């Protein structure tokens, strides 16, 4: 048995508590100073158990962040700066990445591990990552990501979407790779702009849904297409989700069109998404149209935040800090009140749980001990300053101590 006592921390900025963690799970929360069940010595080890104590000194505690949309396989993080190249269109970036990635050793175990370490540094302890599956790398990227996650002892829980970045129908053989990835444990298969990449939205979506139903996996579609073309594909996805009985297993990533539709159609679309149990992930780019997030919330459409790729051949931006994304979401929507600012932090933490299939994610007894300690007054203060993560506990393991990464 391994136990860890986090003494004197303030969940969400509330009253101070002591948190007891046993075998990687939160086993008790009690008012600060009242815990008696654990050693009060620091890092005392015996042959039978390891008791550790961390004095929080009133630091604010949050549940670990959940990055609901990442690409941990394709970053050049840790390498010398790579100047951005390629045409600034989706197709231009796809072509550029395929032409250049070998030069930077993409994908690799080391590259994926570097990204996951940055996630941990910033308090992310679970992620849904899209991993490129194409005729060049086949399923090698997925194997790399799994190996990287294992090398970190599972500190970051990684859920994999087999992602056809180079297209589906236009690249014969990719459907077989997606099918194989699903058979081998990918939680979802991805899609990509069915209309503009494959130029056959019905064909791509029907093929994806056929695999998903047969293999019992989810679908997570990158939908960059704007306006009516994007709206049309939302409808195709919602119809198929209901027909296939995949409610609760389908996600739209980016989905810029939703914020661009005329109000009446947008409201219908939100209701349709809610009825079909479709979730939605965003990186909240400053250039996108604001979302009808209050309507989505009312309609029961789960919203997840993600960093997308960081420092890759698509974009030089991003450092893996989900709080920066939550702040971007707040600014994009003009959030001001404490309640709304707290909601933005919740999107990065507790509300992300469903995207990685966690039943219990929070500062509660029985949850995996994923805890972030920050020097902040309350959740709104966390959001606007995104202060250093003083401590990060991942599955009971101390992965950041005094702001320094330990793994
Ligand atoms: Zn993406």
List the SSEs and their pairings.
Blueprint: E1 2-11, E2 17-22, E3 25-31, E4 44-45, E5 50-63, E6 65-70, H1 90-100, H2 109-121, E7 124-132, H3 140-151, E8 157-163, H4 174-183, E9 188-192, H5 201-215, E10 218-223, H6 227-244, E11 250-254, H7 263-276, E12 278-282, H8 293-298, E13 303-305, H9 322-332, H10 338-348, E14 371-374, H11 379-385, E15 389-394, E16 397-401, E17 404-405
Parallel strand pairs: 1-5, 6-7, 7-8, 8-9, 9-10, 10-11, 11-12, 12-13
Antiparallel strand pairs: 1-2, 2-3, 4-5, 5-14, 14-15, 15-16, 16-17
Helix pairs in contact: 2-3, 4-5, 5-6, 6-7, 9-10, 10-11
The protein binds zinc ion.
The site of zinc ion (ZN) has 6 residues, from loops.
Number of domains: 2
For this structure, what is the CATH class of the largest domain?
Alpha Beta
The small-molecule ligands in this entry are: zinc ion
Distance between the first and last residues' Cα: 21 Å
Q: Examine the secondary-structure arrangement and name the CATH architecture of the largest domain.
A: Alpha-Beta Barrel
- By DSSP (H or I, 4+ residues per run), the number of helices equals 11
Mean of residue pLDDT?
95
Helix content: 25-40%
SS-derived structural category: alpha/beta
The beta-strand count equals 17
Backbone CA Rg: 21 Å
Q: At the third CATH level, what is the topology name of the largest domain?
A: TIM Barrel
- Profile the largest sheet: 9 strands, mixed
Strand content: 25-35%
Low-confidence stretches: 38-48
Q: CATH homologous superfamily name of the largest domain?
A: Metal-dependent hydrolases
């Amino acid at each position: 048995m391994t136990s860890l006592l986090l003494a004197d921390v303030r969940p969400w900025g509330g009253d101070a508590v002591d948190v007891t963690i046993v075998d990687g799970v939160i086993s008790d929360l009690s008012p600060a100073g009242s815990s008696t069940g654990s050693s009060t010595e620091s890092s005392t080890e015996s042959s039978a158990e390891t008791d550790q104590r961390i004095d929080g000194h009133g630091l604010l505690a949050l549940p670990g962040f959940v990055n609901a949309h990442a690409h941990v396989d394709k970053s050049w993080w840790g390498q010398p700066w790579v100047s951005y190249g390629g045409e600034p269109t989706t197709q231009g970036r796809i072509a550029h990445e395929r032409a250049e990635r070998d030069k930077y050793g993409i994908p690799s175990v080391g590259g994926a591990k570097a990204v996951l370490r940055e996630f941990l540094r910033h308090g992310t302890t679970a992620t849904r990552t899209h991993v490129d599956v194409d005729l060049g790398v086949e399923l090698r990227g997925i194997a790399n990501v799994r190996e990287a996650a294992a090398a970190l002892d599972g500190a970051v829980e990684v859920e994999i979407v087999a992602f056809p970045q180079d297209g589906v129908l236009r690249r014969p053989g990719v459907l077989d790779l997606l099918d194989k990835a699903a058979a081998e444990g990918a939680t979802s298969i991805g899609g990509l702009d069915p209309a503009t990449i494959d130029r056959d939205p019905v064909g791509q979506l029907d093929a994806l849904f056929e695999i998903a139903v047969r293999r019992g996996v989810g679908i997570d579609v990158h939908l960059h297409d704007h306006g009516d073309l994007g709206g049309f594909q939302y409808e195709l996805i919602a119809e198929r989700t209901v027909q296939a009985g995949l409610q609760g297993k389908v996600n739209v990533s980016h989905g810029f069109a939703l914020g661009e539709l005329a109000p009446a159609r947008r409201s219908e679309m939100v209701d349709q998404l809610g009825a079909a149990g479709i979730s939605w992930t965003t990186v909240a780019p400053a250039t996108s149209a604001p979302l009808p997030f209050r309507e989505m919330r009312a309609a029961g459409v789960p919203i997840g935040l993600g960093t997308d790729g960081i420092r890759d051949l698509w974009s030089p931006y991003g450092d893996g800090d989900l709080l920066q994304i939550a702040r971007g979401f707040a600014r994009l929507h003009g959030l001001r009140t404490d309640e709304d600012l707290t909601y933005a932090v919740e999107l990065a933490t507790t509300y992300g749980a469903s995207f990685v299939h966690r039943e219990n994610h929070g500062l509660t007894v029985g949850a995996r001990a994923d805890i972030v300690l920050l020097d902040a007054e309350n959740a709104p203060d966390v959001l606007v300053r995104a202060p250093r993560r003083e401590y990060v506990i991942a599955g009971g393991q101390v992965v950041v101590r005094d702001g320094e990464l330990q793994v």
